[in-house]
Design a protein that fits this description.
By secondary structure, this protein is mainly beta. The chain contains five helices and 26 strands.
């Protein structure tokens, strides 16, 4: 990010915005970074689908490839992907240009207690797939050994033939412990017939459970086979068998109450700002565990994906928090219809990205953003999509924004399962 490279001035604020305009307006004097580079595609990518991925940029990003506008992205702390297949030139030098603008209408819901920086601060990468590809995998492992896997395909080409998918689960030593039957998928009218996905429901006997004390992990490998039986693509994710549930006014992890000894953690380095190395992330987790902590809240936004991998490996429970804080306009943007889609999208995109991390036991709807219908809309989508975790939102019980009158009052209960007042 350019702010830590001698350009522009970093701002630190707690509550008030760094400029006086009201939503959705921003200053005319708006720091802007222009990036330009070139790249060539490997010969083996010819005729395939090419995707450009930005890990994070603050706060709005516009992208061009070979002079053609390919997309615009907001949400500083989640990745954005662009299918640039129609715009790249095979066997030639391609030009990638980006404009990153520091202030935008989304800045009002990124008003965390933080240093405001600007620019690209997570990885930028290219990857390639065939025209028919694995679009998504969602795996849920439970304490009793039940494993549900949902795998979806995306397609740009041949819809007239049937494709196949298979899946296999391996233990930490690399031994196969579950081999799932091959599934046939039809791409013809796939969306309306729901035939673009394969679902497996399996049983693993005597699984080694995941917890912060015993972070046992398995590896799931899902493969896509062409109609001729050729393996086109495979992908993998780690699986932890654990159950998160609510008991008699208690949070139960693997069937027992657990005392959460947690901390809020920002992504921060005094020299590189929001850019962290993997070793720095690992050091944070190890030091916290050495001091008796077993949980982290990603205050107040989704962290770099590597951080969740490390929490899975080292054993740390995580509350994953959406990139939503409207502190200066706390009671208003949560009820503003102009921001409804932004609230919803930030919640669902966080869940979609991080859903395969066993370390995450709760989804958080943000921080210090009041409470309103925009939160309930986000909560409804998340509850429907993922029932394997609980919801947390401190704003429901925040004394400055909302009074929870009593257990018979249903207002706010859609948006949280846990009562965790700030700084209690």
């Amino acid at each position: 990010n350019w702010t830590m490279q001698g350009y522009d001035r970093p701002h630190y604020t707690n509550v008030q915005m760094p400029f006086p305009q009201e939503p959705p307006f921003v200053p005319e004097e708006n720091p802007t970074g222009c990036y330009r580079t070139t790249f060539e595609l490997p010969a083996e990518w010819n005729g395939r689908r090419t995707v450009l991925r930005f890990g994070g940029a603050e706060s709005v990003l516009a992208v061009w490839v070979n002079g053609v506008a390919v997309g615009l992205a907001k949400d500083t702390r989640l990745p954005s992907e662009f299918d640039i297949s129609p715009f790249v030139r095979e066997g030639e030098v391609n030009t990638l240009a980006c404009v990153c603008i520091k202030w935008s209408d989304s800045s009002f819901i990124e008003d965390q207690d933080q240093w405001w920086l600007g620019g690209i601060y997570r990885d930028v990468s290219l990857y390639s797939t065939e025209a028919t590809f694995i679009q998504d995998v969602f795996a849920i492992g439970a304490q009793d050994g039940k494993l549900k896997v949902t795998a979806k395909i995306g397609f740009q080409g041949d819809r007239e033939r049937d494709w196949k998918m298979k899946a296999q689960l391996f233990d930490a030593s690399g031994q196969s412990v579950l081999e799932m039957i091959e599934k046939t998928l039809s791409t013809k009218r796939a969306y309306v017939s729901n035939r673009f996905q394969a679902i497996w429901e399996e049983q693993l006997e005597n699984p080694l459970l995941w917890s912060s004390e015993t972070p046992n992990l398995y590896t799931l490998v899902v493969s896509l086979l062409s109609p001729e039986g050729r393996e086109v693509e495979h992908t993998s994710c780690r699986v932890g068998f654990r159950t998160v549930e609510l008991g008699d006014r208690e949070l139960l992890l693997n069937g027992r109450p657990v005392m959460m000894k947690g901390v809020n953690r920002h992504e921060w380095n005094d020299t590189t700002g929001k850019v962290l190395t993997t070793d720095e992330m690992r050091h944070d987790i190890i030091v916290m565990k050495q001091h008796g902590f077993n949980a982290i809240r990603t205050s107040h936004y989704p962290n770099d994906e590597r951080f969740y991998d490390l929490c899975d490996e080292l054993g740390m429970w995580v509350i994953d928090e959406a990139d939503i804080e409207s502190h200066d306009f706390m009671k208003f943007l949560c009820q503003d219809a102009r921001y409804a889609s932004a609230f919803l999208e930030r919640g669902l995109r966080m869940v979609e990205r991080d859903k395969n991390h066993p370390c995450i036991f709760a989804w958080s709807l943000g921080n210090e953003s009041g409470y309103g219908p925009n939160h309930d809309a986000m909560a409804g989508w998340i509850r429907h999509f993922d029932s394997s975790r609980v919801l947390h939102y401190e704003g429901v019980a925040h004394p400055s924004t909302h009074s929870w009158a009593g257990l018979d009052d249903w207002e706010g209960k859609l948006s949280t399962d846990l009562i965790c007042p700030m700084y209690a």
